[in-house]
Amino acid sequence: MLEVRGLRVAYGGIVAVKGIDFEIAAGELVCLIGANGAGKSSTLRAISGLIPTAPGAVRFGGRDLAGVPAFQRARSGIVMVPEGRGVFAQLTVEENLAMGAYTRADGGIESDRRRVFELFPRLSERRRQSAGTLSGGEQQMLAIGRGLMSRPKLLVLDEPSMGLAPIVAQRIFEVIRDINGAGVTILLVEQNARRALELASRAYVMEIGEIALSGDARALLADPRVREAYLGEALA
Questions:
Q1: Residue 96: CB partners within 8 Å, gap ≥ 6?
Q2: Within 10 Å of residue 168's Cβ, how many Cβ atoms?
Q3: pTM (2 decimals)?
């Protein structure tokens, strides 16, 4: 579904991503883990079209996305839920969800909205409340729900548990698992490396703009290098 080849991202003279390769097949949940500044979010921004890429660096469904703007990538099925949530603070919960479906003209919008409310009952309770007055956890639920209203082929999640209480983060992880179980392909960047590896089928470890390790997520969870560097486990 998604092919990344030689992806490079630079901000002026600073190279954040140094020519990485990876791929995601339809139906997978793949995670990127790594320390702050490793280039994870820059990679997601490049895939989503928020940063320009060289020809051939990002292909989706066999199509080269070089020069394709972010809004067209979203229409083609790449939907990003950014770090920091990015909800429309002055709009209600229902209006935010409607914004997620603004490019759609099919008859499934109402059923998708009901599905979002099933996943996040708290949003249903607050459907007429302004998004800016929601708690951080509720805003994260809304951001994911808005993304789902676009009917994504690839859902890109950037740090969905950041700043959340453990019980709320746990619910977010459960929903991510359920979304993937329903057939949505997911690319996840997550600060909680252990939880990300437990959820994912495959994983890539980024270090200083490069892919340092990759493979089966459970195998990486048991890898001594990953355990020591990212799971906080001191090894004898």
A1: 87, 88, 131, 142, 145, 146
A2: 18
A3: 0.91
Sheet strands (E) in the chain:
2-11, 14-24, 29-34, 58-60, 63-64, 78-81, 154-158, 185-189, 202-207, 210-216
With vertex at residue 97, the alpha carbon angle to CA 46 and CA 24, rounded to the nearest 5 degrees, is 35
Pairing type for strands 58-60 and 2-11 reads antiparallel
Give pLDDT tens digits for 91-117. 999 999 999 998 888 889 999 999 999
- pLDDT 10s digits, 135-168: 999 999 999 999 999 999 999 999 999 888 999 9
C-alpha dihedral over 182, 82, 33, 47, to 10 degrees?
80
Looking up tokens 């883990």 gives 33
- Long-range contacts of the stretch 107-113 (C-beta < 8 A, 24+): 108/151, 109/149, 112/148, 112/149, 112/151, 113/149
Burial of 150 (0-12, 13-18, 19+ CB in 10 A): buried
pLDDT of residue 236: 43
- The DSSP-derived string for 180-191 is HHTT-EEEEE-S
